[in-house]
Amino acid sequence: MSESITYASAGVDVEAGDKAVELMKEAVKATHGPQVLGGVGGFAGLYDVSQLLKYREPLLATSTDGVGTKVAIAQAMDIHDTIGYDLVGMVVDDIVVVGAEPLYMTDYIACGKVVPERIADIVRGIAAACEQAGTALIGGETAEHPGLLGEHEYDVAGAASGVVEKSKLLGPERVREGDVVIAMASSGLHSNGYSLVRRVINHAGWALDRQVSELGRTLGEELLVPTRVYAADCLDLARTFDVDAEKAVHGFSHVTGGGLAANLARVLPQGLTATIERSSWELPAIFKLISELGNVPLPDLERTLNLGVGMVAIVSAQAADDAVAHLNERGLPSWVMGSVQASAADNLPKDGPDYVQGAKGVDGGAVRLLGAYA
C-alpha cells in the first residue's frame, strides 16, 4: 500500500493555526468598540458605519502596505512583538495624510510554518498599535506556505480604511505660499531602507548582538525599534488647527520610501517649493552610523532613509509656533524645518541632489534641501 499523504505531512498544521488564533484573540478584541460586530474568527470583519450618517460628504480612504525586509531582523533576533507597530504605522499613517480617521484594519501573515506563539506575538503587536491609533483590527489571515518560505520565515501585510469629510480633506490644494513646514521626529529607522541597512552591516561584518556605545544598546535592538505611529497626533493636530481657520493645518506628508524630499513633494502643488533647512536638526546616531559604516553618499541616504523625520505637517504661518508647542506637549518632538514659497522665488538650479520636483508619479511641487545637518 502506498504512503498516505495528509495536509499535515505536506507541511500545513491546521491545529497550530487554531492555537495561534486562541493566543491572539484577547489582544484583537481590545481594539474593538461597539462598531465592530461578530468578534474574532468570522469569514469577514464587520464594521458598523452608521456613524457616517453624521458626515455631509464622507470620503473613504484606503491604504495597504507591508514592513519590507525589516522582518529579516525580527526573525534573526527571534523577537516578533514589535513588527506589528511597523505594519500599522506604514498603513494608517498614510491615511491620516489626507485628514482621514482610520476606522479599521486587516492583516495578512504568510509563513513557512505556523508557530502559534510567534504568530500571536506578531498580531499582539499589530493590535497594540491599532489600539494606539484608535483603529479596530477586525480581521486577518495567517497562511502557511511550506516549501515556499523557510520554517522560520514570514512576511506581513495589512490594509486599512478610513473616512474624512470632503470639506476637511487635506492635500496639495490647501498648501499656500508662506506656509510653514513642521518636522515630527521619527523613532529611528522605521520600516524603510532596510535592504540598504542590512547590506551595510553585513559588509561591515557587524553582528546584531554587538553593543554599540553611540546607540546605547545592541545593533539589533536599535534596528528593531518600532515605527512611531502618528495617527492620533496628526488627527488631534488637524482638529485643533482646523483647515478653515486662520491657524490651520493644510497637509501632512508621511516620510517613508523615497525619503523626506520625495514624499514632501507629493503633497505640494505645482508652482510652490518647500525649502528645508538641514541645520534645523541633528541626524540621530543610527543614521550617522549607517552613513559611516557603508560610506553611503548623502544623496543616497536622503532618498532612502527618514533621517530622523517620520511625519511632516504643513501649516499656516499663524499656526506654526502653536502647532509645534501642541505636538511637543503631546510628547512628540517637533520643530520648524522650513517654509513654502513660489518656485520662481530664487534663481538656484532646478536640478541636482538637493532639489526634487514631483515624485512617485505625482507631478506636483518641489522641495529644496539647504545647508548641512547640525
Automatic annotation (TrEMBL):
Domain of life: Bacteria
Record pathway: Purine metabolism; IMP biosynthesis via de novo pathway; 5-amino-1-(5-phospho-D-ribosyl)imidazole from N(2)-formyl-N(1)-(5-phospho-D-ribosyl)glycinamide: step 2/2
GO molecular function annotation: ATP binding; phosphoribosylamine-glycine ligase activity; phosphoribosylformylglycinamidine cyclo-ligase activity
The protein's name in its UniProt record: Phosphoribosylformylglycinamidine cyclo-ligase
Pfam families xrefs: AIRS, AIRS_C
EC class (word): ligase
Domain spans labelled PurM-like C-terminal: 176-344
Claim: ATP-binding is one of the keywords in the record: yes
